[in-house]
Structure formats: C-alpha cells, structure tokens
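Record format v2
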Amino acid sequence: MTGDRPTKERIIDATLETLRVDGFAGTSARTIARRGGLNQALIFYHFGTINDLLLAALDRAAMERREHYEEAMRDAADARDLIEVAARLYREDLEAGHITVLSELIAGSLTEPSLGPEIVARMQPWIDLAEGAIARAIEGTFVRELVQPRDLAFALVALYLGVDLLTQLDGDHARAESLFEVGRRLTVTMSMLEDGAD
Amino acid sequence: MTGDRPTKERIIDATLETLRVDGFAGTSARTIARRGGLNQALIFYHFGTINDLLLAALDRAAMERREHYEEAMRDAADARDLIEVAARLYREDLEAGHITVLSELIAGSLTEPSLGPEIVARMQPWIDLAEGAIARAIEGTFVRELVQPRDLAFALVALYLGVDLLTQLDGDHARAESLFEVGRRLTVTMSMLEDGAD
DNA sequence: GTCTATACTTGGATAGAC
DNA sequence: GTCTATCCAAGTATAGAC
C-alpha cells in the first residue's frame, strides 16, 4: 500500500501522524523515523532540518484542506449558511486530526522561535479566506456598517485557535459545539433584525 | 534591593523574566539560574522539578493579577463599561508582559504534556471571573435570552488566548485594539436595541 | 538514496563537600 | 542552604560505507 510511496512523502506522512499522536513535544527526528519505519538520517537527507520538515508537513496538510474549505464556503450565501458550513468543517477537522496538527505547530512555533514567522505567513491565506466569506455573508446588511470583515476574520481565526488550544488541553469538545449554537442564534437574530429593518 | 529577597522568591522572579524575554523554549534551569545570578542546583532544591517551578511562577503572577481584575470588574455595571475595563486591563497586561508569560506557558503546556492539566485547572477561575462579569452586564437585556454567560465567557477567554498567541507571533498589536473597537460598537448597538425594545 | 555509527549540544536532575 | 562536579537521556546533525 504505502510501500511504493516515495520516501519524501512517507516522511511527511509519519510527521503528521507523530504530531497528531505525540504532539509537538514528542515530534523529533527519532520519533518520526520510528513511527514511519524509516531511517533517521533520511530525514536530514531529504529535508535538511526538522523545521523545514515541519513546514513541509504543514504545507501539505493545508493544501489538501484549503480546496475543501474554498469549495464549501463558495456555497454559503448568507451568515446562517456560513455558520452551518463552519460547524461542519470544524467537525471534519477535529475528526481527521487537522486541528491537533495546527494547534501543536502554533504552540510549537512559540517554543521554537525560528518557526514563528514561517507559521504566521502560512496563516494569512486562512484569514483572507475567512474575510472573503464574511464579506459576502454580511454584504448589504446592517452588520456591514458595524464591523470591518477584516477585523471579524482575524477575530474568528483567533477564536478558532484559542478554542483549539483549550480543547486540546482539556479534551472537552462539547464547548466548541455550544459556541456554534451561540453563532446560530446570533445569525438568526441578525436576520430577524435585518428583515424588520428593511 | 533584591539582595534580601528570599532565594525562593528570587528564583520565581528570574523564571518570570526568562519566560518574558526568552520564551518557553529558552526557559531552562540553566537559563533561569544565569539570569537570576543563582546556582542551578538551588532550583531543584527549592522546587524539585522545573514544572513545579513554572506552576509556582504562574500562580504568583495570577494571584497578583486577579485582585486587580476583580476590583476593576466590580465597577463595570453594563456591557459598555465592561468593554472599556477589558481594553484597559489588556493594555496593562501587555505592557507588564503578563500576556507573554501566559501565552508561553499555554503553548508550553501543549509541548510539555505533564503541564497540561495543571494549566487548565489554573485557567478555570478566570473563566468563572469572566462569566460573573458577563452575567451582570447582560442581566435583564435581550442578550440574556440569546446566550449563556458560561458560553460567552469561554469564548472570550479563548479569543483572548488566540489573540495573544497571534500577536505574540507577529508582533502586530494594532489588531487587538481594532477588536476592542468592534466590541465597543457592538455594545453600543446592543444598548440602542435594548432601549428601543423596552 | 539508504544505512550505521557517532560527534556534539543541551537539558533535567542528583551526590556530596562545605 | 548553597556550592561544584557530574551522570544520564534525548535531541540535531553529519561522515562515510554501501
């Protein structure tokens, strides 16, 4: 099955799995190699440094995920759609362990300062994506006069990240669901106000 | 000046300063000892393990801070007051480096799994504090029918944490200020709706 | 490209003298 | 309580044979 995957890909596979299972702390050249049944020296041959490998792993995970996000968000016409789409994507991310990988790398980029700027640069496209979706969802409503899509997008990404981290820390996934429920009610209220106003 | 401070206190001082300056990654028994002009072995004599020292440092920073928060929030009667108080406290935290210490320890608690549960337990009082303030601020308004103070408190703490981390990573403090501006407008809108509804 | 072996560094922690 | 000296584990990374 994985036997004929190129070594470089197998290293990335093993890296993502190690991040998911053992966290950033447990992700070293040695543990990655052990999990992937690979020789440790191959990592340095193919990627040079561990940091470059971690970034390569993040890039691959993000690329696969971004298409999915863009497609799902294209279909969301208003704020109420968007909330449902966001809740679904969050659940998928959680299931697939993408959330774990992201949280671990963000936390790790504080721990490993040389990683910081690279991680930040890779988050910008996600903020842009959120901004576009939000801009479409609130266009022509009174909310548009109240907040900049850019600020809301940043807040949303920050909130997502904070919830990830706290959830990661105490394993309580129910609270994320409560938040989506709050979002639902807020968007319902918003559209009621909107209908009453116009 | 600091000469007659007990050694245990001096170790905690040096730990907090190291977390602020060098981050979690740069905080080891050796770096703490060097910064504090202390002998490395003293750390283990007084605290046993590095983790216990980090938790002791967090406890001291939190204790000093919590009184200040409780006092400031007691004076906030409604949501508009609360936003102003929150913005002021955030700026103070930023200035004093409390935000750095907290972010580093949260990130570090993902990196150092044995730290995780302890850090989570120490965040709960802050969520409770936020919940109480929010409950008072939205009591008797239509918002109370829309969301649970508990959910909003969790979201707020998560947002605070996420903003901290991103700010920490890219050094852009302006965006946090934009968010307080958004909060201001939302609370103004909220009280306008409230006045119109009652 | 892949392997073994190893150099080098840093960190947590302890033993034992003072 | 404080110091010096040291052990041991784990990490990144490279040299050199195959």
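Residues 50-74 of chain B form the longest helix (25 residues).
The domain at 1-48 of chain B is CATH 1.10.10.60 (Arc Repressor Mutant, subunit A).
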